[in-house]
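Q: Protein A?
A:
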Amino acid sequence: MKKFINSIDDLVQDSVAGLVMAHEDLLALNETPLFVCRRTPKQARVALMSGGGSGHEPLHTGYVGFGMLDAACPGQVFTAPTPDQIVAAAEHVEAGQGVLMIVKNYGGDCASFQVARDMLEMELATVLVNDDVAVEQSTHTTGRRGVAGALVVEKMVGAAAEAGADLYECKALGVRVNANTASMGVALTSCIVPDADAPTFDIDPSEMEVGVGIHGEPGRYRRSLMPADDIVALLLDPILKDLALAAGRSVLLHVNGFGGTPLIELHLLNRIATQRLRAEGLQVKRWLVGNHTTALEMAGASLTLTALDDELTALWDAPVTTPSLRW
């Protein structure tokens, strides 16, 4: 195993500190307990926060800023943040209009955020993200996993919060975006957790794991490597079945890399997926391509589709300024 590490115990803390240093105009660091928040003063509106295990960067810390999150709580690698992190972050960003927690559907994340909710004395609401159509149950979840769709929820709800939507309007919007979003991924290699001396799973160079989770959880099945056209079909078929969109519907296509896949390949997948969606009678109106919800250095990618209407398109297009997403 070769990684840039001094101390495994300090890796997350030091990495987050480096992120904040690189974006000191946007971000502030709370060292103990660890969380990242906006540097700008609190405003009288709903505050948005999220969090989860590290190793998925830029999710979630890279999306703190104008138009998205007010705070993010990074846990250790592939490990949920602790309730005290969540409590401290919520108390820091709450500005009299309540706090909306955006939580990916993993057992540890859900438990930590629920304990924190029980400890907090403020108006709170939660949106549970469970966009992964690969499997209904996994070793980390009860029900579908939350994956790259979290970014879409954070972006659209963040825009609504900036525009003055109240807590329950933001929650209802987040639930609607999640219900209109579906994702599925494929892995070509495993990742290596920093405190492990071996890959999370073994996979032959000629194989791929279809429906893999972002922690290396198994997917629907393993099979021989296929051409990119066929891989896109394997990912899009269950997504389209899940969303059951009528011809003519507008969609956002998010092609996400898992950390070890170069952009030349991600853009190839984008071209293939866009052509397939158009052949299905759908109108691809917006795109996002890049490494946004990663699994350390795993080679692989996921496709996320969000059904759009005029409101959701406007919320996606609304200005955003974060370390990893801005327009």
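Q: Protein B?
A:
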Amino acid sequence: MDLENALYEYGYLLEYADIFSLFVIILMFAEIGWDVFKKTGRGWKETAANFAIALGNIAIDRITYGLVFIIGLVLIAPYAFFEIPVNIWSWITAIIVADFTYYWMHRFEHEIRVLWTYHSVHHSSHEFNLSTGLRLAWWESFVEWMFFIPMVLVGFDLIQVLVGVVFVVTYQGWIHTEKIGKLGWLEGILNTPSVHRVHHGTNRDYIDKNYGGILIIWDRLFGTYQVEKEKVKYGVLPQIGTSNPIKINFYELGKLFKDVWRAKTWRERLRILINPPGWMS
């Protein structure tokens, strides 16, 4: 299906995502109001950094979406091996496959250091609230779209890939909070605030757990599921110790550059790039 026609026909699905995002923003400001009223000791520098990073992303995304669809996926689409019909079943399948793809993308971002340089931005806050969901590296969208190339190659329509990714990402807007406790049996099926608190934890049992976007069943299938037991300690190890949005975005990239520069061989440099964060020869 032609992308322009598809956007015209199915653009309303993206509008649903926008409406949900607006709802999350309202919740975000309600949470801020509650913290002010209750004097919870919220770190306002961290919240300000989250919003500053979000503003940078709003500006950059205008370019990113063009990169993804014009230079990236649109050029790849003609080489698809199959053509999956656009119907209700392929829409459901596309969202599930996008969620599955997100799980592995997210896991690789934790397990491959060069990818961790941008994903660490999201984990860098020692606080956890709805504004934390805004803390996304300014250049991550330039990389993440490549993980969804297989969806295009197997025959999903471009609009289905787009909507699938947007739904997976948009869903996660409400789970960055400590205001919602455990949700019973849903914890074993969906990504919930409790499940995602674990993901942001630096506790020994919490590190590199719960990668799922919408469904948490992927983590249960692949051995990365962890329930919330003890109080979560948020952030990264070691803590970056700054609320400056520019430093937050480039902190890990700078560390990587120094380590690669100091490496004595090209083999060691490659291993630094692709091995997990914290690995050194």
